[in-house]
Design goal:
The complex is a heterodimer of chains A (about 110) and B (about 110). Chain A has about 110 residues and is mainly β. Chain A contains no helices and eleven strands. In chain B, about 35% of the residues are buried. Classes of the chains: A mainly beta (about 110), B mainly beta (about 110).
Chain lengths: ~110, ~110
């Protein structure tokens, strides 16, 4: 039981490049989330998916897109990376009966130069 | 809009000292409250949570938090810290009518000197 897994762990991009961050959970959770963590700002919600087939914007969605591929997987795409997107990205999931209790992945550290 | 404020950005304590980290939130309705911890190099883990009932909640590793509704606060406490408590601590709030979305505070970095 791996919980929430994320790939890659580290990534360096040049401005304008694109990439997709992958997230998968094996806890049969309905809801999945993408956050970014920046120093002094805590975690901010980028997008979330309350259930398979649905996605909604969070606090800071600009510059990102998401896909809920199936119940297990929720990917985050940067179409044209910018230095302001340098951050640590965390994926999380929560179950149907305890939606407020989230389980986090190990994070992806992204640097955009 | 909901917001969460953590008063201290960086706290430095010696082992065996007592700890209290402040957390205030702004939201008028029913909320759920959480403290998460992030040890160096690790991902966030749930430390404790408050949904309803006894406003004094106990979590893992000897931590506890008290919900004071009149003050919109949910402060984290530990009577005697250890070096292994060195980590970053995040307070978070969610409301019943917003599904599982969490709003996080800025985080407090705790450094415990041996």
């Amino acid at each position: 039981n791996a919980g929430v897994t994320q790939t890659p762990k580290f990534q360096v991009l040049k401005t304008g490049q694109s990439m997709t961050l992958q997230c998968a959970q094996d806890m049969n959770h309905n809801s999945m989330y993408w956050y970014r963590q920046d120093p002094g700002m805590g975690l901010r919600l980028i997008y979330y998916s309350a259930s398979e087939g649905t996605t909604d914007k969070g606090e800071v969605p600009n510059g990102y897109n998401v896909s809920r591929l199936n119940k297990r997987e929720f990917s985050l795409r940067l179409e044209s990376a910018a230095p302001s997107q340098t951050s640590v990205y965390f994926c999380a999931s929560s179950g149907r009966y305890s939606p407020h209790e989230q389980y986090f992945g190990p994070g992806t550290r992204l640097t955009v130069t | 809009a909901q917001s969460v404020s953590q008063h201290n950005h960086h706290v430095i304590l010696s082992e065996a000292a007592s700890l209290e980290l402040g957390c205030n939130y702004s939201y008028g309705g029913t909320v759920n409250l959480f403290w998460y911890v992030q040890y160096p190099g690790q991902h966030l883990q749930l430390l404790l949570k408050y949904f309803s009932g006894d406003p004094l909640v106990k979590g893992i590793k000897g931590f506890e938090a008290e919900f004071i509704k009149s003050k919109f606060s949910f402060n984290l406490r530990k009577p005697s810290v250890q070096w292994s408590d060195t980590a970053e601590y995040f307070c978070a709030v969610s409301s019943y009518n917003q599904g599982g979305k969490l709003i996080f505070g800025q985080g407090t970095e705790l450094s415990v000197k041996p």
